[in-house]
Specification:
By secondary structure, this protein is mainly alpha-helical. The protein is 38% helix and 0% strand. The N and C termini lie far apart (78 Å).
């Protein structure tokens, strides 16, 4: 059952339990009912100030209308980063938004020519082949298709290191 339904049925609503979070102390103007703050002398339930219902929020705004601490209340909400509720008779839509951080522009990296890309891939294939890796392992490491690695290896005149079934071949055998 919702909090509102419980309230309408006349049930009391349990107060929130502290779970070890640091809660800033209430400002003096809110905690001293003799000073005249409307929330301290409420005729309506405090949930009205944080309600999801428009008519309850309107009631909360009206409650704040004659409050002498409206400005203090609104300033408190802004200074403490309150993101919900009616503060000083104003809702979230009237609060200043935090400034967005500027996203750094990505640095343009120079594009390689076809020839530079070919030379770069050949160098990487040779380095990995010298570490006794199979064509398929080299392909996975470089993000290439296995057939592309085989073509590069053949162009460089490097023999296959592994035959059918993953059997290790001597380095002297050259793939035709």
């Amino acid at each position: 059952m919702s909090r509102r339904a419980l309230r309408l049925a006349g049930h009391s609503i349990a107060q929130p339990v502290s779970v070890g979070l640091e809660v800033p102390p209430a400002p003096e103007f809110m905690s001293d009912p003799r000073r005249g703050c409307a929330p301290a002398n409420l005729q309506h339930h405090p949930d009205y100030f944080f309600s999801i219902y428009a008519h309850e929020r309107a009631t909360a705004r009206n409650t704040c209308a004659g409050c002498p601490f409206k400005t203090d209340c609104f300033t408190y909400a802004i200074e403490h980063g309150e993101t919900a509720g009616i503060w000083g008779g104003q809702g979230m839509e009237n609060r200043p938004r935090p400034a967005k951080k500027a996203t750094p522009k990505p640095v343009a990296t120079p594009r390689l020519t076809k020839e530079q890309t070919r030379v770069h891939l050949e160098r990487q294939v040779r380095e990995l082949w010298e570490r006794d890796l199979s064509d398929s392992t080299i392909a996975v490491n470089l993000g290439l298709h296995c057939g592309a690695v085989t073509r590069i290896r053949n162009r460089l005149g490097l023999p296959a290191l592994y035959g059918a079934g993953g059997k290790r071949l001597p380095r002297t055998v050259v793939n035709a």
